[in-house]
Design goal:
By secondary structure, the chain is α+β, with helices and mostly antiparallel strands. 34% of the residues lie in helices and 23% in strands. The protein has helices at residues 83-93, 122-140, 146-160, 218-223, 231-251, 254-273, 284-300, 323-334, and strands at residues 18-31, 36-37, 41-42, 46-64, 69-74, 77-78, 103-111, 172-175, 189-191, 203-207, 305-308, 314-318, 343-347, 353-354. Helix 2 (122-140) crosses helix 3 (146-160) and helix 5 (231-251) runs antiparallel to helix 6 (254-273). The radius of gyration is 20 Å and the shape is globular. The two termini are 36 Å apart. Bound molecules: ligand DP6. Residues 29, 32-34, 40, 46, 120, 122, 161-163, 218-219, 222, 268, 309-310 line the site of ligand DP6. Ligand DP6 binds at residues 29, 32-34, 40, 46, 120, 122, 161-163, 218-219, 222, 268, 309-310.
């Protein structure tokens, strides 16, 4: 099934050095991926908004070498602590990208968001790196179609971090085999294009409640779904939620959108609280924000809604038409619950893009 991603062209050794440069965004899941099988196969399909302002820019310099090697630089500093993760990634993708075993690589990345913001850089970072690697493949085989380029980039990104598979595509991307989306796959993400225009510039303000290291990593959290007492129901529910959400996205039905998105966020954390061992990633200020948002929404008849990823930060989602109501509320009422009063204003974006040299 995965054979089509194994590079098998006769041209396997690069003779020239080169540079590739990509920008790729972070994403926020609306229906959450939580639980996976071997080889980064998701236990359920997920769907996310691709963000715009939170992104990673990665420059990959490569040159032929008898002994392969790589270095990772983050924000202009050599980062040895990132190298084990990249090493695992390269080892996993080597069978699909054998040309990497004849290269010396220098990976230089810059994140647009602060390193210790609690925003995971793996989705943006690994998708940007996967796209750079596909540039090497294209240098060897200029016949590559654009569709295959993106599909294999998403396939490779998934092997680095599941959610990274979705960051390649604009606006809305789904990942995981499901009857809800045509052409869906466990191996790579695909773009969902049929959505109502209101979601094209949907706002996401990320309230930075806790910028520290997470007590339990996503990797461990996914593993805990293996023997989870509610796993089966959860995976079925995710598929049901996807079908309802798809309809709401097509119609621009914000009431249903809000209900599903909030239910998904709380279910994700409910899974954490009911696994063995159980754990909590929400903080008191996470809950304080949720209660303030619900009260403000009711009082003002607005559409802002909350979602969470695997951490304490709160993502506030709302239509652009409500910016003038919501931003003052964030500034006056919610920023006090954020570490150092910090929040990041982002919105749905157009996905990864090549940076011209
Ligand atoms: C809660 O993609 O970080 O953000 O595949 O182990 O790298 P790995 O996990 P990761 O998990 C993301 C979990 C989530 C939900 C989501 O983005 O769908």
């Amino acid at each position: 099934m995965t054979d089509k991603y194994i590079y098998q062209e006769p041209n396997i050794q690069l003779t020239n050095k080169g540079v590739s440069h990509w920008q790729s965004p972070s994403n926020i899941a609306l229906v959450k991926y939580w639980g996976k099988y071997n080889n980064q196969i998701p236990a359920n399909a997920s769907l996310s908004f691709t963000l715009n302002n939170c992104h990673t820019q990665t420059k990959l310099s490569y040159e032929p070498a008898a002994i392969p090697s790589f270095e990772v630089w983050v924000n202009a500093k050599r980062e040895l602590s990132f190298e084990p993760k990249i090493k695992t990634f390269i080892e996993r993708i080597l069978v699909y990208c054998p040309y990497l075993s004849n290269l010396r690589l220098k990976i230089e990345t810059y994140n647009s968001f602060p390193h210790s913001s609690g925003i995971a850089s793996s989705a943006s970072g690994l998708s940007a790196l996967a796209l750079c690697i596909m540039d090497i493949e294209q240098a060897l085989n200029p016949q590559l179609s654009e569709a295959f380029f993106k599909e294999k980039a998403s396939f490779l990104a998934r092997l680095g971090s599941g959610s990274a598979a979705r960051s390649i595509f604009p606006y809305l991307a789904s990942w995981g085999a499901t009857d809800v989306f045509e052409n869906s796959s466990d191996l790579y993400a695909t773009e969902f294009k049929q959505f109502h225009t209101i979601f094209r510039d949907y706002q996401d303000t990320v309230l930075l409640v806790d910028r520290g290291q997470k007590v339990v990593s996503s990797t461990v959290g996914h593993q805990l779904m293996n023997d989870h007492p509610f796993a089966k129901q959860r995976f079925e529910q995710a598929d049901y939620n996807l079908s309802i959400l798809k309809d709401a996205l097509i119609k621009g039905d914000l009431k249903t959108f809000n209900e599903i998105v909030e239910s998904e966020a709380l279910t994700l954390h409910a899974m954490m609280m009911t696994s063995a061992p159980y754990f909590l990633l929400m903080k008191p200020n996470t809950l304080a924000i949720i209660e303030e948002v619900w009260a403000f929404r009711k009082e003002n008849n607005l559409n802002l809604t909350i979602t969470l990823d695997a951490g304490a930060n709160v993502h506030l989602l709302y239509p652009k038409s409500e910016v003038n109501d919501v931003l003052p509320f964030i500034k006056d009422k919610l920023s006090r619950y954020c570490e150092k009063g910090l929040y990041i204003c982002d919105q749905v974006g157009t996905g990864s893009q090549r940076i011209n040299q």
